[in-house]
Design goal:
This protein has about 280 residues and is mostly beta strands. Helices cover about 0% and strands about 55% of the residues. It has one domain: Neuraminidase (6 Propeller), CATH 2.120.10. A hairpin with a 5-residue loop joins strand 16 (about 150-155) and strand 17 (about 160-165).
Length: about 280
């Protein structure tokens, strides 16, 4: 057993193969299901409630600054939904931009101004991934044409000057500079992760990047100097199972919550270094 597995546990069970996870500022954990479910998890993981359903396949999710709404990437409908936190009403936010429609809208990331970045994976086994960017009102553009080898999970860097992107079949992590005018700048390699399929990402407050893998069931830690080590590995894939997206939450953001596409639960890992606060923790929406 990997040493950190002793600090990992099943937080909530009974979900439909969750691909994604996000943490609301009120402490509730949110996740999606492969039949379009959007779940809210409360009461320390004991209460799992389906609050909406897209009728598609929910991939990545993210809360807006102030957490007034949840961006929901949907593989089945090839769109991004806007789920209002007050009414739990779903509205289509975007289906693409610049005359190009989403094929696999995979993961959303908000910046502090409320702009939304969305990774478009492209096509399996073809290098066609790119990144879209949308204003808070929904006006979109192709922000970075890539091409990425299956653009997947993303995360804003601690200083807000880079957008980090998982390229699942590279396999590894790249980053794109965010220029002062908001345009995409230089694209550089952060690390490669041979013989893995990386999927999700999250930063801690010390600037370390955590990269979760669909295969094998492993999470890496990448230091600010881009040194790679294994944070946790579950070789029999029961506590971590095809781990896709990850998000920090819990008291002081000291816990890492993991979605497991291969099973029916959300995993919680207790960590010593807290997570980096996201724009959703800001007071204004």
């Amino acid at each position: 057993m990997h040493p950190l597995l002793q600090k990992a546990s099943i937080y909530a069970d009974g979900l439909d193969h969750p691909e994604c996870v996000a943490v609301h500022p009120d402490g509730s954990i949110w996740a999606g299901g492969e039949a379009g479910q959007v779940y809210r998890i409360t009461d320390g993981g004991k209460k799992v409630e389906e609050v909406a359903n897209t009728g598609g396949f929910v991939l990545g999710i993210a809360f807006s600054p102030g957490a007034g709404w949840l961006a929901v990437c949907d593989l089945g409908h090839k769109c991004v939904w806007r789920l209002d936190m007050g009414s739990h009403k779903l509205e289509k936010f975007a289906t693409g931009a610049e005359g190009e429609h989403f094929n696999i809208p995979n993961y959303p990331v908000f910046d502090a101004a409320g702009n939304l970045y969305v990774s478009e994976s492209g096509v399996f086994r073809e290098v066609k991934g790119k990144i879209f960017k949308f204003t808070p009102s929904g006006q979109g553009q192709i922000w970075c044409h890539g091409p990425f080898n299956f653009a997947n999970g993303m995360a804003l860097g601690p200083d807000g000057n880079y957008l980090y992107v998982v390229a699942s079949f590279l396999p590894g992590v790249e980053r794109v500079a965010i220029l002062p005018d908001g345009a995409a700048g230089e694209r550089t390699l952060v690390c490669t992760l041979p013989e893995t399929v990386p999927d999700g990402m999250a930063f801690d407050a010390a600037g370390n990047l955590y990269v979760s893998c669909y295969a094998p069931s492993k999470i890496f830690r990448v230091t600010p100097a881009h040194e790679v080590s294994v944070l946790i590995y579950d070789w029999d894939a029961h506590t971590l199972s095809n781990t896709t997206n990850i998000a920090f939450g819990g008291p002081g953001l000291s816990q890492l919550f993991c979605a497991n596409l291969g099973r029916w639960h959300i995993t919680r890992i207790d960590l010593e270094t807290p997570g980096l606060p996201l724009p959703s923790h800001l007071k204004k929406d």
